[in-house]
Automatic annotation (TrEMBL):
Main location (coarse class): Golgi
Protein name: UDP-glucuronate decarboxylase
Keywords: Decarboxylase, Golgi apparatus, Lyase, Membrane, NAD, Signal-anchor, Transmembrane, Transmembrane helix
Enzyme Commission code(s) on record: 4.1.1.35
Pathway: Nucleotide-sugar biosynthesis; UDP-alpha-D-xylose biosynthesis; UDP-alpha-D-xylose from UDP-alpha-D-glucuronate: step 1/1
Amino acid sequence: MDIKEKLQEMEERIIKLEMNVPKTFPPVKPLGYKDKKRILVSGGAGFVGSHLVDRLMMDGHSVTVVDNFFTGSRKNIEQWIGHENFEIINHDIINPLFIEVDQIYHLASPASPPHYMLNPIKTLKTNILGTINMLGLAKRVKARFLISSTSELYGDPEIHPQSEDYWGNVNPIGPRACYDEGKRAAEAICYAYVRKENIEVRVARIFNTYGPRMHINDGRVVSNFIIQAIENLPITIYGSGKQTRSFQYVSDLVEGLVALMNGNYSLPVNLGNPDEYTIEKFATLIKEFVGSSSPIVFKEGLEDDPKQRKPDITRAKNYLNWSPKVSLQDGLQKTVNYFKKEIQMSKTGLRS
Ligand SMILES: O=c1ccn([C@@H]2O[C@H](COP(=O)(O)OP(=O)(O)O[C@H]3OC[C@@H](O)[C@H](O)[C@H]3O)[C@@H](O)[C@H]2O)c(=O)[nH]1
């Protein structure tokens, strides 16, 4: 959509608002009261959270989003504002929350390294106090609880690929510790609640994920490289570029989260795409994909940057019958289209 079309769309929306024409929502499945669940998504205005909210809403459930909008954004969920099945609470989960729900997807936490390192104490509080508060809620209302954990829990892994029974290699006092150790503590807290309080817990260890709705200032490799390539700016590789990552498209992750929540498996499960690339190869691939003239440049490496990462997804295959479906080609196409629009909008001042 170019800028003229976008302006026209906005004008039409203003006219409809002025005329009090009811907003049209994406289609929602009708669900009987027995199947309809009340679902809380913490961090539901974020990149992953908002895609999950779309899925749960379209499945016909009642969804409550709780978000403090630190990295989340209202525009990610604006399509549901005003829907009778949808509610949004502006709240920081480091404080307790009292509502009635059947399921809790606990996704609230900054996830991009520059964001979580910006305020490490807040990252620790969110993952530790926030998880305790969300589990307290799950205990009070007997809700099933899913937490978004991370592949960062494996630190700089000495085994490859990483399976869930690997305990990890994390620097407990390094700059990434606020997130890595925060998530490790969060998992420990979950299983303490399982042992002592009989809570039904699901733990998703999420590997690198990309897709539309990543923030333009997200700072992770996929968004950085795509934006740099679109703008013909230098593509910045941190370190040698020999480090590896494996990238999953966001809709695959959402499928995995829903399957995990509704299945019977209660130990941690890796959710990621085993399609592995060196960062150097990935830079070339993005440059060619976008058709960019960007030079590829090497910058200083990051402290404690994991050298290799690839999920072993045997558990997810066996227990959830889940495996990623979206190819890098298809996922990148959607993501590049999204960023082209976002860049255009930010240049016209319509988006920050
Ligand atoms: O511009 C950039 C950005 C990043 N990178 C490199 O690309 C690799 C991936 O970096 P990202 O910041 O995208 O993500 P990381 O793998 O370090 O961390 C991620 O891990 C999994 C999730 O839990 C989180 O989304 C995030 O913490 C790193 O080696 C990083 O140094 C670049 O070379 N250039």
